Amino acid sequence: MGKLKVLFLLLTVSVLVLSACGTKKDAGAEKSDGDGSYELMKKGSLTFAASGVYKPFNFEEKGKLTGFDIEIGEAIADKMGLEANPVTNPFETIMQGLIGKKFDAIIGSMAYTKERAKQVNFTEPYYYSGGMIFVSEDNKDIKSEDDLKGKKIGVVAQSTYEKPAQTLSDNIQYYSSDVVALKDLTIEGRLDAVITADIVGYEAIDNDFKIKEVGKPLWVEQPSIAVRPDNDALREDIDKALKEIIEDGTYDEISKKWFDRNLLDLDLEGVELLE
After folding, report:
1. Mind telling me which InterPro entries this protein's record contains (predicted)?
2. What CA–CA distance (Å, rounded) separates 52 from 59?
3. First-last CA distance in the chain
4. Which of 136, 135, 102, 95 is nearest to 117 (CA)?
């Protein structure tokens, strides 16, 4: 009987050890979407980042993130069967945040460029936007990009507008928010011009900023959703969900809510796409 008791105890301990190992493995799986095909920072949720200071695309209102980017992210998460978990990160360090696994994706008006694509993987574009020069309403000196030589230009650091601005002038003022830069245009002596998205500038004009556009867009950029290269299965599912919200009319509804038009409805023939 003594030997049988010892054998029974050994079997019991073995079962407990195996159970404990299984529990540890299951806990680790909480970083996946349930079937293990891709990694999520929080099980059952799509955690995506935006700067939170890029109105009307992403901004805080009454303590909550809202805007076009945020609603697109929410619609995509819904199609994927996930909860939307939008977070903020300064734009100048947002790629580092993604690579450092602070969030799953960037849905924050980050345009695709070949340089950025060396570090992250991008989905198809989820809207098109033109890079535009804006000046104060009473500025009569700047009528084209050729007039910007030596002028003080405001741009958001690490944005797609930074390098073009540097080719036009050696006097660059960096900002963390396009809205603040455009506001500085209205204060005498602060800035001569700002280069930002045409949509953002027009939104500022609609909100009584005393500014105006100069000429036509310098180029058209392709804001896309970014994920880490080692999580490309997530990009594939996001692309699939994006296609679905475009096809079922959800995208059109969100776009027209914020801009009275579909931001993907643009004739790209003969247009220079920023790469």
Report:
1. Iontro_rcpt_C, SBP_3_CS, Solute-binding_3/MltF_N
2. 4
3. 79
4. 95
Chain centroid, CA 228 distance in Å: 13
Contact 159, 114 (CB under 8 A): no
* Closest to 131 in 3D by CA, of 161, 158, 153: 161
User: In whole angstroms, what is the distance from residue 242 CA to residue 248 CA?
Assistant: 10
17 lies in some domain = no
The gap from C-alpha 118 to its chain's centroid, in whole angstroms, comes to 17
For 96-127, how does the pLDDT look when each residue is reduced to its tens digit (9 = 90+)?
A: 999 999 999 999 999 999 999 999 999 999 99
pLDDT (tens digit per residue) in 200-233: 999 999 999 999 999 888 889 999 999 999 999 9
Domain that holds residue 186: 129-221
**Total domain count for the chain?**
2
Give the helix ranges, DSSP H, for the chain: 2-28, 68-79, 94-99, 162-168, 178-185, 198-206, 232-247, 250-259
Q: What is the CATH number of the domain that holds 146?
A: 3.40.190.10
| Residue 258 CB neighbour total at 10 angstroms | 18
Distances (CA, A) of 43 to 4, 27, 40, 156, 208: 44, 10, 6, 33, 43
Query: 232-247 and 250-259 helices cross at what angle (nearest 10)?
Result: 80
Q: Pairing relation of β-strands 53-54 and 58-61? A: antiparallel
